């Protein structure tokens, strides 16, 4: 049975969710100052006409490819590598991470008063084998005034988050209804992740 996994994500929420499952993990991140040429922003560019499901699965796969190469390049011990990506979609429109506060406010204004989908893809590399799963949840935001949106954006919470909000933070005050996986909306669906880890030999 594997002793630990590598987590190829900078998200503190994903770490927290893995800890909740009781899985020992080590971070496998690109060197900020090193000579590793990985362009995360380029990986996250949406292709013309790309559907949200295809997008989130493709990006997760590319991130995992990069992590697998990173482990090999660094000569680290062999262990399963977990990668995940979350995106928000309103219809076929994909809402990634906002560029700045203005962009975040615009995103929130479009999501307010509507139901949107939160798609989180998970992929686990176990030796030559790749296991993957997809979690899709539906979230309905209440209508929000411009003042409410501006106040939320001013907290800084929307920056760095798909769809410009974090459900585990202050945005919860505007979530009227959700159907699906709360942990998936946070960034790592527990049920699907546990299934993949069990398939890799972890006792969860």
Describe the protein's topology:
Blueprint (H helix, E strand, L loop, with lengths): L4 E3 L4 H10 L3 E3 L12 H4 L8 H23 L6 E10 L2 E3 L5 H11 L3 E12 L2 E13 L4 H9 L20 E5 L2 H5 L3 H10 L5
Parallel strand pairs: 1-2, 1-3
Antiparallel strand pairs: 3-4, 3-5, 5-6, 6-7
Helix pairs in contact: 4-5
Give the radius of gyration: 17 Å
The global form is globular
The averaged pLDDT comes out at 93
What gap, in angstroms, lies between the N and C termini?
12 Å
Largest sheet: 7 strands, mixed
Order of helices and strands: EHEHHEEHEEHEHH
Which residues sit in consecutive blocks of at least 5 with pLDDT less than 50?
none
Q: Give the proportion of residues in helices.
A: 25-40%
Tally the helices: 7
Structural class: alpha/beta
Strand residues, percent: 15-25%
How many beta-strand runs? 7
InterPro entries: ITPase-like_fam, Maf-like
Enzyme class: hydrolase
GO molecular function, one term: hydrolase activity
EC number: 3.6.1.9
């Amino acid at each position: 049975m594997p002793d630990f996994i590598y987590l190829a994500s900078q998200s503190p929420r994903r770490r927290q969710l893995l800890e909740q499952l009781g899985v020992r993990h080590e971070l496998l991140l690109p060197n900020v100052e090193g000579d590793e040429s990985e362009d995360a922003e380029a990986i996250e560019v949406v292709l013309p006409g790309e559907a949200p499901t295809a997008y989130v699965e493709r990006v997760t796969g590319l991130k995992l490819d990069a992590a697998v190469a990173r482990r090999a390049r660094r000569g680290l011990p062999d262990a399963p590598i977990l990668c995940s990506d979350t995106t928000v979609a309103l219809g076929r429109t994909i809402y990634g991470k906002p560029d700045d506060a203005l962009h975040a406010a615009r995103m929130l204004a479009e999501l307010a008063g509507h139901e949107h989908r939160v798609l989180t893809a998970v992929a686990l590399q176990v030796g030559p084998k790749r296991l993957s799963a997809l979690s899709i949840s539906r979230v309905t935001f209440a209508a929000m005034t411009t003042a409410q949106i501006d106040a939320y954006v001013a907290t800084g919470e929307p920056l760095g988050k798909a769809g410009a909000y974090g459900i585990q933070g202050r945005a919860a005050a505007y979530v009227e209804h959700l159907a699906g996986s709360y942990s998936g909306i946070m960034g790592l669906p527990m049920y699907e992740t546990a299934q993949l880890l069990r398939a890799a030999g972890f006792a969860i």
